[in-house]
Amino acid sequence: MADLDQCSSTETVLDSEVLEAENNMNHESKLQFSEDEETLVVIMFNLVGERWSLIAGRIPGRIAEEIEKYWNSRYSSKSE
């Protein structure tokens, strides 16, 4: 019986590690923007500035936080 409990506990740890890895991969892939998305973000930013929710409303499947994070990682001059 102890072996069964240990096996179940090991499976639970492995399951949670797999889920965490999948979530990280999904998050990373969401931060990759297609060429069309990038072009649209640049155009919209030039038109409306840092109104991320307005920009996100023009890109299906994206949220304001993703757009802002992408913009800041790609175009922000804070790193200079």
UniProtKB/TrEMBL annotation:
<dbReference type="InterPro" id="IPR001005">
    <property type="entry name" value="SANT/Myb"/>
</dbReference>
<keyword id="KW-0539">Nucleus</keyword>
<dbReference type="InterPro" id="IPR015495">
    <property type="entry name" value="Myb_TF_plants"/>
</dbReference>
<dbReference type="GO" id="GO:0090558">
    <property type="term" value="P:plant epidermis development"/>
</dbReference>
<dbReference type="InterPro" id="IPR009057">
    <property type="entry name" value="Homeodomain-like_sf"/>
</dbReference>
<dbReference type="GO" id="GO:0009653">
    <property type="term" value="P:anatomical structure morphogenesis"/>
</dbReference>
<keyword id="KW-0805">Transcription regulation</keyword>
<feature type="domain" description="Myb-like">
    <location>
        <begin position="25"/>
        <end position="75"/>
    </location>
</feature>
<dbReference type="GO" id="GO:0048731">
    <property type="term" value="P:system development"/>
</dbReference>
<keyword id="KW-0804">Transcription</keyword>
<dbReference type="GO" id="GO:0005634">
    <property type="term" value="C:nucleus"/>
</dbReference>
<dbReference type="GO" id="GO:0000976">
    <property type="term" value="F:transcription cis-regulatory region binding"/>
</dbReference>
<dbReference type="InterPro" id="IPR017930">
    <property type="entry name" value="Myb_dom"/>
</dbReference>
<keyword id="KW-0217">Developmental protein</keyword>
<protein>
    <submittedName>
        <fullName>MYB-like transcription factor ETC1</fullName>
    </submittedName>
</protein>
<keyword id="KW-0238">DNA-binding</keyword>
<dbReference type="GO" id="GO:0006355">
    <property type="term" value="P:regulation of DNA-templated transcription"/>
</dbReference>
<dbReference type="Pfam" id="PF00249">
    <property type="entry name" value="Myb_DNA-binding"/>
</dbReference>
<dbReference type="GO" id="GO:0030154">
    <property type="term" value="P:cell differentiation"/>
</dbReference>
<feature type="domain" description="HTH myb-type">
    <location>
        <begin position="25"/>
        <end position="79"/>
    </location>
</feature>
